Amino acid sequence: MAHNILVTGGAGFIGSALSLQLVTRGHHVRVLDNLSPQIHGANPESSPLFCSIHDKVEFVHGSVTSRADLMKALLGMDMVVHLAAETGTGQSMYAIQHYSNVNIGGTALLLDLIANEPFPIRKIVVASSRAVYGEGKYVCPQHGNVFPLSRSAEDMENGDFEVHCFACGVPARLIPTDEETPVRPASIYGITKLAQEQMVLTIGKALGISALAFRYQNVYGPGQSLSNPYTGILSIFSSRIRNGGSINIFEDGKESRDFVFIDDVVTATVKGIEHEAPLTGVFNVGSGVATDVLTITNTLERMLGQTVPVKVSGQFRLGDIRHNVADLTKVQAVLGFNPSISIEEGLRRFVAWVTDEGVLADRYEESLRELEAKGLLK
Length: 378
Description:
This protein is α/β, with parallel strands linked by helices and 378 residues long. 38% of the residues lie in helices and 17% in strands. The chain is globular.
């Protein structure tokens, strides 16, 4: 069944790929996006992401913080996929009001209009994040499953980066984090994503419409900004390698993430959008595999055919977590989603795309200086 779908942030990395897939599947897609220069560059209307969708979707240039823009974008839609948000853990720790205004305020305004205006919305899908969990789920040899609080700056300054059981202090072992894990966001970004999903789920239930929150893990792939220093490490490191710059690996390089390829993220999201039975809930979307940062760095160097100075510095950012890996049991059972692209295959596709892109000047060092100036990089 075809739907009229509004995708906020639909010109972004995930949004553009999702919008194109929805169009291919016969849906009418309207995109609302502010074409942020941080994502789209100095000439946003010529950016590859925007150009990929501009003649395939109905486009509204505007912001989710504008009532007039949202009123225009919502007209005639029956579903909303809410992706518009400021992203980046480090930046969120000092751009606090901005993240709150866009992520929380924009979501509140969107839901206010859905609740009070005669828009026939029957489903809302929101992009949440693994950041809502904080450190996530671990197991202690003595105390079983534990859900640690944020690591202390004192421990990390002494070179102890691992997560410890809060009851006995021994190192705890990472296990896949499921949706029943207590939410303990360790950054302003994580707090805003949790607020977004809770508002969407609460209002969806109150209005009797389906509401889904997808807790995306670390999404990567073709189309990801290579010049934005607040994006994921794959883009940052690949740009550094191609520019011949050095790479500063935080902590001890053994910190790990669940890297999930963009195509798998789109597949999972489409399954949620096209699920016709009433449905409300949160779902992890990831690969189900944890990969450490040193492995990522070495693989990128190998695939790009370049080596650069790599320093494992022991520095750390306040708000970062140690590890994460998603438990996908729920999304597999309810939506039938199974990731299909391994980290090796995903990186191969990512590097093939990166190699075809021009070598861009990166602003990574600038972003680190910002963090240091704010006292957030130790």
